[in-house]
Amino acid sequence: MKSVNLDELITQKEAAEIRGVTHQSIHLLVKRGRLRTVRIGARRFLLRSEVENFERVPAGRPRKGSTQQNSKASKGGRAKKESRDTTKKSAKANRKRKA
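Request: output the structure for the sequence above.
Response:
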């Protein structure tokens, strides 16, 4: 069994204060296996260094083209609007020609 410095162990409440989140959030991270715990008797403790070095992972699946800049132009937002405008203009011109 590994030897752990007791000064390095913190409670879930202390971990929540360090991270600026609720103790429920820390509990979920432990439950999902994102943070490891050390059990002493009936209590569970976390390693301070692990809590301080923890990095969030974005939730969900990555967006399409996530390597591109997320702007309307790269998503085609402006191009779609322009094509709608030209379609409206051409429909209006067709009506005038028929009349």
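DSSP finds five helices and three strands in the chain.
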